[in-house]
């Protein structure tokens, strides 16, 4: 905004006051317009951010729900595998173990299981652009809590995934006349993996519920 001096000398106090009033009014109008433009920009940024976050959360929720569908059958297979490992010396146990541990026959403890893959681009962009700073505090907290739980799930899943694959690999040794010590090692790894499945299931259910609440409470 440019401010110009009067075209003729100010000779009276009245003229000085009028000129000052004009300048002050012009500055206030300019500041008001600038503030309105910024408010409009911030509102547009927040609206776009909300849409992107909700789309991202819906996609992440679908990934978690796919995981949940495969967990119950997986727990049953691991429970059965532990039972078979406990009675490997019994007649018929080896034949029962074949479908679970023999890849040639399509056996796999992890068959039908899925692991969640999450997108975080919308959340990261909201942080970088400062969009969260223009939202209500309670709304920002809801998003932060959700993505914090999601990050915890990812960390737990990474560790448990290794235990699951180790159990599936080690379990195949049951088909080669293992020693009692080897059988105990298999059982220990299978129990560790089964415990991991329980942890993942609890976290996945919590995360699924958190996603639903955030989407429901979205403005």
Describe this structure in words.
There is one protein chain. By secondary structure, the chain is mostly helical. It has one domain (56-217). The protein has 5 helices and no strands. It has helices at residues 13-86, 93-101, 121-129, 137-171, 180-217. Helix 1 (13-86) packs antiparallel against helix 2 (93-101). The longest helix has 74 residues, at 13-86. The protein is rod-shaped and about 115 Å long.
Short description:
By secondary structure, the protein is mainly alpha-helical. It has helices at 13-86, 93-101, 121-129, 137-171, 180-217.
Largest sheet: none
Order of SSEs: HHHHH
Strand content: under 5%
- Quaternary structure annotation: single chain
Please give the alpha-carbon distance between the first and last residues: 37 Å
SS elements, strand count: 0
Overall geometry: rod-shaped
Residue stretches low in confidence (pLDDT < 50, at least 5 long) are none
Which value, in Å, is the CA radius of gyration?
A: 32 Å
How many domain units? 1
Give the number of helices: 5
Structural class comes to mainly alpha
Q: How much helicity do the residues have? A: over 70%
How confident is the prediction overall: mean pLDDT? 83
């Amino acid at each position: 905004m440019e401010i110009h001096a009067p075209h003729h000398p100010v000779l009276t106090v009245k003229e000085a006051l009028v000129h000052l009033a004009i300048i002050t009014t012009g500055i206030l109008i300019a500041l008001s317009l600038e503030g309105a433009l910024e408010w409009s920009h911030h509102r547009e940024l927040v609206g776009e951010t909300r849409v992107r976050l909700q789309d991202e959360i819906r996609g992440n929720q679908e990934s978690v729900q796919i995981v949940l569908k495969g967990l119950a059958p997986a727990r049953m297979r691991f429970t059965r595998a532990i039972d078979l490992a406990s009675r490997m010396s019994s007649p018929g146990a080896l034949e029962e173990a074949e479908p679970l541990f023999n890849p040639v026959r399509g056996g796999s403890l992890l068959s039908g299981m899925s692991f969640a893959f999450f997108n975080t681009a919308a959340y990261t962009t909201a942080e970088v652009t400062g969009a969260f700073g223009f939202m209500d505090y309670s709304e920002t907290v809801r998003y932060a809590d959700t993505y914090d739980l999601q990050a915890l799930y990812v960390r737990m899943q990474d560790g448990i995934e290794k235990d699951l694959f180790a159990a599936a690999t080690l379990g195949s040794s049951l088909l080669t006349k293992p020693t009692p010590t080897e059988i105990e090692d298999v059982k220990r790894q299978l129990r560790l993996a089964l415990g991991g499945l329980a942890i993942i299931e609890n976290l996945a259910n919590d995360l699924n519920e958190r996603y639903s609440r955030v989407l429901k409470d979205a403005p």
